Amino acid sequence: MALTISWIAVVIILITATGLLIVRDWRWSIILLAVQYLCMFILTLQHWPLGMASVKLVAGWMSAAILGMTRSNFAAQDFEETGIWPRGRLFRLFAAGMVLLIVSVVTPKVDTMMADAGYAVTGGSLLLIGLGLLHLGITSNILRVVIGLMTVLSGFEILYSTVEGSILVAALLAVINLGLALVGGYLLIASNTPDGVESE
Amino acid sequence: MNAPTIWIAFPIGVGILLLLISNQRVLSVLGGVIAFVLAVTAQFVPIELAMSVGGISLKIDSSLTVLGRTLLIQPAEGPLLALIYGAVALWFFGAEASKSANRLVPLGFMITALMVASIAVQPFLYAALFIEMAILLAIPMLTSMNRIPSKGITRFLIYQTLAMPFILLAGWLLGGVETSPGDLALAGQSASMLGLGFAFLLAIFPLYTWVPMLSEEVSPYILGFLLWILPTITIIFGAGFLDRYSWLRASPQLTIALRLAGLAMLVTGGLFAAFQRNLARILAYGAIVETGFSILALSVDLRLGIPILFLLIPSRALGLAVWSLSVTVIKEQVETMRFGATQGVLRILPFAGTGMIVAALSTGAFPLLAGFPARLALWESLGRESISAALWMAVGIVGLLVSAIRSLAVISMAEEYASWEPRESWTQRLMLGVGVIGLFVLGIFPQAIQHFLTNLPLMFEHLGR
Known about the structure:
heterodimer, A: mainly alpha, B: mainly alpha, two-stranded antiparallel ribbon, 71% helix
């Protein structure tokens, strides 16, 4: 039963992380991020007790709320991307497919390295890391960058929870997640300052 | 009373309280004095040794337990704390002259305390978590709410954050290598993971693109502070890995990798600086070269390399402080930091111009300046092991010296009858003057600070012996 739920969580992670790549409405991004943290909680539960795994869920949802509340203060606008790289939805889907392919190939090897954490846990975490890195590689939008970093860290936290059960580490990682959201909120406010100066 | 409370919790508390003060001078003086007192305490008050003060028996315990783990400041780490907080006091005293005290002092205290926590935490690989927290605090320090964050800021955040997972996972893998030393594949994987983590954290070539980008976008003084404290303590943390794992210490591949990484930073930083036409970016490449020297020090015989690593710290702190303060003062008076806009500024900013050139020359190992003794010792040690590596080091140094001479030519290129009209404030003149004198003093009398550095290698169990 637990294994089935884990695999369902992995499928949802694939959908949310890919969704984060292609959606243009920030509201959907925040919702997908929150769902992603729920799946992360399910995968962490495979190795951690409920109390400690809940820390990740609460910290993740609080981070999503911080970003959402900050973003809601500004005029509605889609993510704007500039640059030389192709950034269409089809390209992003193709790139996400490539990440999925790579993850499915390396999962068994990484699983052996990570003390047989389980394919679902390892695969789910690698998907988050891979798609998060892809996200970071194709955006310069502040909200997207922070979401990308949170996605990468979520993947890492799942993987790390299989080998490390320290309360201090769980607490510090929660603080880092919240700190990242606060920094994201700070940068979002700065980037939307009406009289903002480009640089010093 | 325990050491982590004094040198970690107390500075964080002070930093939070100082956020309530907005007066630049008060912040600068108060922050500088508190940091100086912390440095003096670290140097002269022994840890884990009972003392009698006015009939009262006092003892500073070395450890503090937090959530089942320990923050441990060993007695041998006292001189290091003195060095760190002493240098922080220097930066804080100069903060008023750079007009950045309201961001530098409060957040600087918190960042310093977190970096100290990264050295103190047990198991030591959790340090990556504290460093990441310091990185997050650095963002509001670098940019204010009324400025649009630049690409350099986002790149800094991304690169530094990506380091943490690599180092934590590498730490776990290294534990596995300890239990099964024959597993070469695992050793290779953990070493690669560790290398990637430190490459992100120390901004090793080619991951240092954010440094020159930031130098153009944010206050050079604040950037200088970060480019001093983050790499300095990260390298000490990295040396901790070498101290802990004997197979890593004995690995010839690691020595080669460290040497290549150090030389890559030195050569590329030096050459990019030589061809650069922007004074702020030259400062950034200077800081990159400084990190290159430190990494290179870890690649030579560690009995010499570790003392050299510690010898590099004071000159780096003072050199970067003077250089970044000078660039900050120049930036206030010119439209851009490009050569075209800074021609002849020596006539209106003689102290800042002199400070910038002297600090750049010091970084470039110019004789009689602070950077010279450590670089000479490093060059000699490197030359004993590899002549070609020593020659490449010379290429980097020549690049930096060329950039310093080009900068001097540009800032002194005033119109023929332009008069000398110094525009620096008295505080700026005082801080820059004292800093430049300090660079000469450290260069001419390097033994003056030897008393503080002699016992520093004792903080390691195996390195530097």
